[in-house]
Amino acid sequence: MSFMLKNVNKKFIMKGKDLEVVKNINLSVRDGEFLTLVGPSGCGKTTILRMMAGLDFPSEGEITENGEPVTGPNTDRGFVFQQYSLFPWRTVLDNVAFGPEVRGVDTDKRYQNALNYIEMVGLTGFEDSYPHELSGGMKQRVAIARALANDPLDLLMDEPFAALDVMTRHKLQEELVKIWQEEHKTIIFVTHNVDEAVFLADRVVVLNKSPGEIIKTFQIELERVRDRTSPDFIELKKEITQLL
Hints:
Layout: E1 3-14, E2 17-29, E3 34-38, H1 45-53, E4 60-65, E5 68-69, E6 77-80, H2 92-96, H3 98-102, H4 107-120, H5 136-149, E7 154-158, H6 166-183, E8 186-191, H7 194-200, E9 203-207, E10 214-219, H8 231-243
Parallel strand pairs: 3-8, 3-9, 6-7, 7-8
Antiparallel strand pairs: 1-2, 1-4, 4-5, 9-10
Helix pairs in contact: 4-5, 7-8
């Protein structure tokens, strides 16, 4: 198993009182699985993802990755934020090469590796561009390439396409599925968009409103590339939407 969450609860202190955000989360994620967490705004999806990343910690319960407790961030986990979080003073190439640079990877090797991932996300020709010269969709491609360049076992993605227009969003969803199929990474993807969840996932985990609890899990057995207009796709969307 990639991740195991056992009886995970999370509380924040707000105005001197405990605010329960996540309640009794029990979840296992298989190696190589594409799993989406879907639910209304404020249901704790991002909090769960941040705890899996080691950026936050449960108030109660346990989270393990490959059998080891998650005690903080590490290179086994890549994280793609909703906001692009690129270094504005670095080119596309230098942004993607940053992680291997910090780890002391040889210059030629890290740049060749970065170029491979830039090609994979469809940005060949933009290696020397700066973030301010890129569209939102292009910036998010850079963020994905940067996460992949660290060669993580697991890729955690927090609504990375939420700010994009529908056409760009659909295009990047298709490209992400191709990358996942090529790279064989485990992906945990947070979204409040049911169409996106069904299009991407092997399994959709549905949470209710705060405090976030898992109310149902859907195994998605539709063939890829998925047809958003097919009766089965539409029926799954309808069933999940009604739960929410």
